[in-house]
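Continuing the batch. This is chain 6 of the set; chains 1 through 5 are on the previous pages. Same settings as before, nothing changed between runs. Recording input and output for traceability.
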Amino acid sequence: MRQKGASSPRQFVDLPDPVAKQAVNIAPPLEWRFMITPDQKVLVGNKRTVLIHNDGKNILSMEGIIVDEVWTRN
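Output for chain 6:
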């Protein structure tokens, strides 16, 4: 599943505001791949995103990464 809407600076909460605003314009959309367990209580999968290296004001480089994710329903 690929993100359909426009990116938001809030997706980049780990980045300083000026860098997050730049990332919105150049980062590819998030992409998720996941499966649900038969009991429908756990989603297991990964998220395709980017790791952004910056100097606090500007993006210096960007690399694609895959992050494993697990979500548990309470």
